[in-house]
TrEMBL record:
<dbReference type="InterPro" id="IPR036908">
    <property type="entry name" value="RlpA-like_sf"/>
</dbReference>
<protein>
    <recommendedName>
        <fullName>Endolytic peptidoglycan transglycosylase RlpA</fullName>
        <ecNumber>4.2.2.-</ecNumber>
    </recommendedName>
</protein>
<dbReference type="InterPro" id="IPR012997">
    <property type="entry name" value="RplA"/>
</dbReference>
<dbReference type="InterPro" id="IPR007730">
    <property type="entry name" value="SPOR-like_dom"/>
</dbReference>
<keyword id="KW-0472">Membrane</keyword>
<dbReference type="GO" id="GO:0000270">
    <property type="term" value="P:peptidoglycan metabolic process"/>
</dbReference>
<keyword id="KW-0456">Lyase</keyword>
<dbReference type="InterPro" id="IPR036680">
    <property type="entry name" value="SPOR-like_sf"/>
</dbReference>
<keyword id="KW-0732">Signal</keyword>
<dbReference type="InterPro" id="IPR009009">
    <property type="entry name" value="RlpA-like_DPBB"/>
</dbReference>
<keyword id="KW-1003">Cell membrane</keyword>
<dbReference type="Pfam" id="PF05036">
    <property type="entry name" value="SPOR"/>
</dbReference>
<dbReference type="GO" id="GO:0042834">
    <property type="term" value="F:peptidoglycan binding"/>
</dbReference>
<dbReference type="GO" id="GO:0008932">
    <property type="term" value="F:lytic endotransglycosylase activity"/>
</dbReference>
<dbReference type="Pfam" id="PF03330">
    <property type="entry name" value="DPBB_1"/>
</dbReference>
<dbReference type="GO" id="GO:0005886">
    <property type="term" value="C:plasma membrane"/>
</dbReference>
<feature type="signal peptide">
    <location>
        <begin position="1"/>
        <end position="24"/>
    </location>
</feature>
Length: 253
């Protein structure tokens, strides 16, 4: 099955690795105890895990699961050094430089918000952005607690240069699905062997998708899913960790 190499490919393209970048473990949803660096190329450690800040937000676009944080953190210092305001239009990212502006689109209902990254997080596994209460409310995700989103870096001073927003399910776009990517292989036979190995451990359903990552390079991605919802994805990810399978990435296509 051919696919456009989408958000799940981000780490695999660079390395042709057997397995993709590891998800964080499942610590409590908490901000870092001290401000994290804002500059690209720097790194910081939270709950024993090192995170690397991207050198630039230019052309950043990623799909994944968004969460939000509210009253428990209201008034506490963010990684940028300013107090968190749950009623502001801000967000936390593990990897985007502080001060980056992003457009966040709810892929299920089409609602959009523009927020400034001024904090670090979320440090719960399988989430790509933590939104303020107000931003989450405008996306319609307060009740569910999470949403399937696309995050795109934008320039608030030059909107004409911004990328177009994604086509969401509410307006004729495809229904977003959650997958867990467990491997990327340069050889189809190796991908099938790894798929069979995971099946013997009771994991599934699984698919193998191929994607072009260069002029003459095809990768074969082994993915669990599609999964029914965020809770199902979290349960499968936790089960994989219990089984000792640490290298996987939860994403949305």
């Amino acid at each position: 099955m051919k696919l456009r190499v989408g958000p799940l490919r981000i780490v695999a393209v660079a390395a042709l690795a057997l397995l993709l970048s590891a998800c964080a473990s499942l610590p409590p949803p908490s901000r870092s105890g001290s401000p994290a660096p804002s500059g690209g190329g720097q790194s910081y450690v939270v709950f024993g895990k090192r995170y690397y800040v991207l050198p630039t937000a230019h052309d950043y676009s990623r799909r994944g699961i968004a969460s939000w944080y509210g009253p428990n953190f209201h008034g506490k210092l963010t990684a940028s050094g300013v107090p968190y305001n749950m009623y502001g239009m801000t967000a936390a990212s593990k990897v985007l430089p502080l001060g980056t502006w992003v457009r966040v689109t709810n892929l299920e209902n089409g609602k959009k918000v523009t927020v400034e990254i001024n904090d670090r997080g979320p440090f719960v596994a399988n989430r790509i952005i933590d939104l303020s209460y107000t931003a989450a409310s405008r996306l319609g995700m307060i009740g569910p607690g999470t949403a399937l989103v696309e995050v795109q870096a934008i320039n608030p001073h030059n909107p004409a240069a911004d990328p177009p927003p994604p086509l969401d399910a509410a307006h004729g776009g495809p229904t977003p699905h959650i997958y867990i990517q467990v491997g990327a292989f340069g050889n189809l036979s190796n991908a099938k062997r790894y798929q069979a190995k995971l099946a013997l451990r009771g994991l599934g359903p699984m698919i193998i998708q191929s994607g072009q990552v260069g002029p003459n390079q095809t990768l074969y991605f082994v993915r669990l899913g599609p999964l029914a919802d965020v809770a199902a994805a979290d349960a499968v990810a936790q089960r994989m960790s219990v089984l000792g399978i640490q290298h996987f990435q939860v994403g949305v296509e």
